[in-house]
Amino acid sequence: MTTPEPTNVPVKIRTVVTERAPSDISGLENETIDAALPGRTGSRVEIRDLSAFYGSHLAVTGVNLIVEPTEVTALIGPSGCGKSTVLRCVNGMHLNTPTGRVQGQVLIDDINILGKGVDPVLVRRNVGMVFQRPNPFPTMSIYDNVVAGLRLGRRGRRTSEYDDIVEVSLTRAGLWPEVKDRLKAAGSSLSGGQQQRLCIARALAVEPRVLLMDEPCSALDPISTLVIEDLIAELKASYTIIIVTHNMQQAARVSDTTAFLTVPGLGQAGALVEIGPTSRIFSNPNEKATEDYITGKVG
Ligand SMILES: Nc1ncnc2c1ncn2[C@@H]1O[C@H](COP(=O)(O)OP(=O)(O)OP(=O)(O)O)[C@@H](O)[C@H]1O
After folding, report:
1. Domain containing 156: what range?
2. Residue 132 and residue 245: Cα distance in Å, rounded?
3. Is the C-beta atom of 100 inside 6 A of ligand 1?
4. ABC transporter domain: from which residue to which, for each copy (predicted)?
């Protein structure tokens, strides 16, 4: 069977990825996120022969991987192998890095989001990102933090719609019971773990299909880490999740699929060594390099 060629047509991003016509995407009037969530699933992500550069420096090359909806895929590997760079290609952020350049494709539901003419704002709306350090807007209230992404470029939404979205997003991020009585308090008044869940709520508020997490627990204590891991397990029913982690136990706990990347030699670009079910990668990897890394012999 031949695979249909992906297209770079921006209008398709609007209709397929967001499932809204171009004229509808400026707002969700008469619709709450609540109504949009039941029964939804994430998007399929396919990375095809991806190479990413910083200027002339080839950071990572030849990456091919498929992430199925409702799965968590972990990217693991030694420092500098290109995990974060690959992640930032999946929402096009790498192209915003000064000197950032790519070859290859990142298909989201068969649309190449790295193609010419694709609207980066629409891509970001469909591919949310949570960073290593919780980064709520410090002077904004908890409420305003959640709707910050929605307010960008959108006018005319009723306050009650924002209220619904704030409650649904904070509930899905597992934070609502802890903050529902102090939504006007500053985001920075929360603990580190709560701030990270606030950032997850902010990412969910714009209804992404894919959620990227770059070491989301590395700045958190063990209890907050477990809370986020439980949350990831719940969210995967509705979102495609890709997580970068240095923590092997965490990769084993939260992911269905694991991709191992490494730098084959000094001065060389990072590359994908193997990808497979997490249980196999951690018990019976195909490649010696993978085994050496997960058993702590190298890396
Ligand atoms: N902004 C940048 N400018 C130039 N080179 C960069 C930049 N960011 C990353 N690199 C280089 O790209 C390569 C891959 O970096 P990347 O951060 O993606 O690796 P990583 O596997 O996520 O590392 P870590 O686990 O340490 O976070 C490295 O050689 C790094 O030095």
Report:
1. 10-20+42-294
2. 10
3. no
4. 45-294
ipTM over 0.90: yes
Looking at residues 105-115, what average pLDDT do you find? 93
pLDDT in tens, 133-156: 999 998 999 999 999 988 875 556
26 in any annotated domain? no
CA distance 171 to 180: 10
Closest CA to 244 of 87, 43, 14: 87
Give 97's DSSP letter.
S
Q: Tell me whether residue 270 is in a domain.
A: yes
CA pair distance 75, 90, nearest whole angstrom: 13
The letter for the amino acid at 178 is E
Q: How many domains is the chain built from?
A: 1
Residue 29 lies in a domain: no
| Residue with CA at minimum distance from ligand 1 atom 30 | 80
Element (H, E) at 111: strand 111-112
Nearest atom in ligand 1 to 88's CA: 18
Q: Backbone phi, then psi, for 270, in 5-degree steps? A: -65, 155
Ligand 1 centre to CA of 94 (Å) is 11
Q: Could you tell me the pTM of the whole model?
A: 0.86
Taking the C-alpha atoms of 171, 200, 248 and 272 in order, what is their torsion angle to the nearest 10 degrees? 130
- Closest Cα partner for 152 from 35, 25, 37? 25
- Tokens representing 299 are 């890396």
CATH code of the domain in which 103 resides: 3.40.50.300
Q: Residues 55-99: pLDDT tens digits? A: 999 999 999 999 999 899 999 999 999 999 999 999 999 999 999
Ligand 1 atom 2, closest CA: 54
* Residue 86 alpha carbon, nearest atom of ligand 1: 18
pLDDT band at 19 (very low <50, low <70, confident <90, very high): very low
Q: Does residue 4 lie in a domain region?
A: no
